[in-house]
Automatic annotation (TrEMBL):
Organism: Chloropicon roscoffensis
Protein name: Uncharacterized protein
Top-level taxon: Eukaryota
Organism lineage string: Eukaryota, Viridiplantae, Chlorophyta, Chloropicophyceae, Chloropicales
Length: 168
């Protein structure tokens, strides 16, 4: 769950950076706030809509995935709606989160699939690391035990590279 939250936060930061880049690109290479605003003012609504479509799409998909999408009309009709919706959200955690993300990946396509896969894989990493550690824990030998059991044979100058070390 923590890996998911961190990845979702990074995704939001990437979306924000893309929006900032769009605004900065409107003013040339050395952008001040005034220059960016002046050049964006030259864009038509449809040009601005097109320039921000990918960032908006990712923001909408991330909000939908996190369960925090509410329309402006709903908010206007009930000003306390956002606060109450925030308290009502029961977002999955642990294995349920992985199942939720897997199902969302399965039904997604295009930019939504890329975002969902990234969140799924980053959320899966701690779980797979834990499975790996549990699977191979019995194969680990404490360093001190290894040195006591095999150190003399490995450090013995009479033992050449081709010789088989007993017990290994």
């Amino acid at each position: 769950t923590q890996a998911f939250a961190a990845t979702a936060e990074r995704a939001a930061e990437v979306i924000d950076a893309e929006v900032q880049r769009i605004f900065a690109a409107g003013g040339g290479s050395s952008v001040t706030a005034g220059k960016a605003q002046a050049s964006l003012a030259d864009l038509s609504v449809s040009e601005f809509h097109e320039a921000t479509s990918l960032a908006r799409n990712h923001a909408e998909r991330l909000a939908d995935l996190l369960g925090c999408t509410t329309t402006f009309e709903e908010i206007k009709g009930a000003p306390g709606l956002l606060d109450s919706k925030w308290r009502e959200v029961e977002f999955p955690a642990g294995v349920d989160l992985l199942d939720y993300l897997y199902r969302r990946c399965d039904g997604a396509d295009g930019p939504e699939r890329v975002l969902t896969q990234r969140l799924f894989l980053c959320s899966l990493e701690p779980f797979s690391r834990q499975c790996h550690e549990a699977s191979f824990a019995h194969l680990r030998t404490n360093r001190e035990e290894f040195v006591v059991a095999h150190g003399k044979a490995c450090l013995d100058p009479s033992c050449s590279e081709g010789d088989e070390v007993s017990g290994l």
